[in-house]
Amino acid sequence: MKTEILLTELQFKAVRSSGAGGQNVNKVSSKVMLSFDVNQSLALTDEEKTLLKHKLASKLTNEQVLILACDEDRSQLKNKTIVTKRFLELLKSSLVVPKKRKPTKIPRAVIEKRIKAKRNLSEIKQNRRKPNF
């Protein structure tokens, strides 16, 4: 993943924010919408693209475009920096490949302990039976 190239591929769009704020909300477009096309990206390899499509399937549109929004601050510039940081963190976390699990061998002492417990329980149950004369 090449971060410098990624940042040039991002598309930003300023939209009017919703919620409280009075006249400021009606006048100023402070909400920032970030869109990133996974298929057209030059900064990602083919393996990274498939990994992103798999892990971010619920966040991608039908055209494989990731859309993030931020309207936390009244400043458009701060919202832009927040959504960019959020985008980079999302990509880093989704590009992590999980380690393959290695099945461990059951230790001999554990197997012997289980067999001993079974034998002990068997003897207890045999002692409960009526004697056979």
From TrEMBL:
Alphabetic keyword roster: Hydrolase
Coiled-coil regions listed: none
Location of the Prokaryotic-type class I peptide chain release factors domain: 16-32
GO molecular function: hydrolase activity
Residue ranges crossing the lipid bilayer per the database entry: none
InterPro entries per record: Pep_chain_release_fac_I, Pep_chain_release_fac_I_sf
Gene3D superfamilies: 3.30.160.20
Record SUPFAM superfamilies: Release factor
Cross-referenced Pfam families: RF-1 (PF00472)
Family: Belongs to the prokaryotic/mitochondrial release factor family.
UniProt xrefs under NCBIfam families: PRK09256.1 (NF006718)
Annotated protein name in UniProt: Alternative ribosome rescue aminoacyl-tRNA hydrolase ArfB
Lineage: Bacteria, Pseudomonadati, Bacteroidota, Flavobacteriia, Flavobacteriales
